[in-house]
Amino acid sequence: MNRIYFLIITLSLALCSFAQSDRDFIRRGNRLMRDSLFDKAQVRYQKAIEADNANPQAHYNLGNALLFQSKGEEAMKEYEQAARMETNKIRKAKIYHNMGVVMQSAKQFDKAVAYYKNSLRNDPLNDETRYNYVLSLWQLKKNQSGGQDNQDQQKDDQGQDEKNQKDQQEQQKQQKENEQKQQEQPQPNQMSKENAEQMLNAAMQDEKATQEKIQKAQQQPQQKHLKKQW
Fold first, then answer.
1. Residue 26 has pLDDT above 90, yes or no
2. Domains in the chain and their CATH numbers?
3. How many C-alpha atoms does 74 have within 13 Å on its Cβ side?
4. What is this structure's pTM?
């Protein structure tokens, strides 16, 4: 009878030890976090999750350990898990606050504003969250304003480019017209086609008149000239 009682007690203690092992891993992870041993703390929190995957604190702390190792994307997944499971408003506010920090660091200010809002809904008196919320909101508006300025600048640049292109086309057109006019006008050492034809016609008329004179002279009787004797 004593032996059976001993076995029951031993089994009961083992079950209690197993049920609290996730918390034990969390405590060990917290000590490692205070010593800035984030990679080792990560391992402890992962073991805590293996022991109890429904523990939101383990997911939240694991997210913090990942975030301190600049693993923002992985940290967000753990925060999302923790936010779904957490029921305590203050702890839930901390989860959303950290999610806002990740998005703010990634310059995704619209998402950061949304997470800070959720954090303030759960803990309206948190001044740090309120400050981050206002800062992210200002950064979002500035980013949007900067984007509009860039668009306006691009439009101005495009308009200027079109104007320059149009001016260049006008210059090319004017230059082409000037070249055509120069080709049509006779050059100092060069005659136009019309002038050449006029000169040719005049020469032909002169030649015709000359031929007529010669023929006329040949048709007249020749007169002998007497040489005077001495």
1. yes
2. 15-86 (1.25.40.10), 87-158 (1.25.40)
3. 12
4. 0.58
